Amino acid sequence: LILQPPPANAARRATRDDEVDDVRRLLLDFADPQAGTAAQIAEVAEAVAVACLGDNHLWQDLQLPSRDELSALMAHWFPALKARNSGDMKWKKFLYKQLCEREQVFVCKAPSCAVCSNQPLCFGPETAAGPA
Fold first, then answer.
1. What is the SS3 assignment for 123?
2. What count of other Cβ atoms lies within 10 Å of the Cβ of residue 67?
3. Which pLDDT band, with edges at 50, 70 and 90, does 111 fall under?
4. What is the DSSP code (8-state) at residue 115?
5. Of 48, 50, 58, 121, which has the fewest Cβ atoms less than 10 A away?
6. What angle, rounded to 10 degrees, do the helices at 38-51 and 67-77 form?
7. Given a cut of 70, is residue 87 above it in pLDDT?
8. Concatenated DSSP letters of 46-111
């Protein structure tokens, strides 16, 4: 398995290393030790974390063919985290929401996602173009 975030993300990482570390730790906390070797799990977590710095949908920043492929990747390597995304929130938004919940930072325009005016931006189908 080789995941290659776009090279531009490497430059961004220099200024956002703490952010990458937080996402990577989140992923590793939910990693399935049976999914692969420790080195493989770390490699996938690192690639996903760095790809979160991109401007597109996470599946695009990982250079995957579709969001379904990303969901399959998450189900294989991080099944407990995949199970938490029961509402099928877009992955990048979901990961950052998980980080905020860990820090007990609950910022939302509405008391719950079900009534939030931005729900169409966070849930539902994605197009091939556009931000995550």
1. strand
2. 19
3. very low
4. G
5. 121
6. 140
7. yes
8. HHHHHHTTSSS-HHHHTT-S-HHHHHHHHHHH-HHHHHH-TT-B-HHHHHHHHHHHHTT----SSS
CB 118 within 8 A of CB 85: no
104 backbone dihedrals φ, ψ, rounded to 5°: 55, 40
- How many whole angstroms separate alpha carbon 72 and alpha carbon 110? 30
Contacts of 21 (CB under 8 A, 6+ apart): 49
CA 78 vs CA 20, 27, 28, 58, 65: distances in Å: 17, 7, 8, 15, 19
Q: Is residue 121 classed as helix, strand or coil in its secondary structure?
A: helix
Instruction: Please give the residue that has the higher pLDDT: either 36 or 132.
Output: 36
Q: Token digits for 41?
A: 């799990």
DSSP three-state, residue 42: helix
Summarize pLDDT for 33-74 with one digit per residue, the tens: 999 999 999 999 999 999 888 888 899 989 899 999 999 999
Q: Are 50 and 5 in contact (CB under 8 A)?
A: yes
